[in-house]
Specification:
By secondary structure, the protein is of the alpha/beta class. Helix content is 41%, strand content 17%. The termini are far apart.
């Protein structure tokens, strides 16, 4: 996938960001990402960002993991995501993929 990204034309890169994960290439209009989407939701719903738990595992998740109150990832999160989670004192699950997401939810849900 990285080789595909490396061959994206400069004309496209003027208007779009290209983010590579282990399973996909995201081509996103410049200035639009998961953080901008989340900011729209929290503003409309009047939810403080500090009250948001975010779960992500790849580079396209980094923008919103940087702004949520509690960033988390399953154990399969890439190294850049894990470093961000550690730096922000978030939570890294011991399990990967959906099992890790379930672990995170179970760890923080109030009974």
């Amino acid at each position: 996938l990285q080789a595909v990204k490396d061959n994206v034309s400069n004309d496209l890169l003027m208007h779009f960001d290209v983010v590579v994960s282990s399973a996909a290439i995201d081509i996103i209009p410049k200035g639009i990402n998961k953080a901008t989407g989340l900011l729209s939701v929290v503003e409309a719903c009047e939810i403080p960002l500090g009250n948001i738990l975010g779960i992500g595992d790849s580079d396209n998740d980094i923008p919103f993991l940087e702004i949520v109150g509690l960033p988390c990832c399953p154990s399969n999160g890439n190294n850049r995501v894990k470093e961000l989670i550690k730096r922000r004192n978030g939570y890294i699950a011991t399990k990967p993929y959906a099992e890790g997401v379930s672990e995170i939810i179970d760890s923080f849900i109030e009974e």
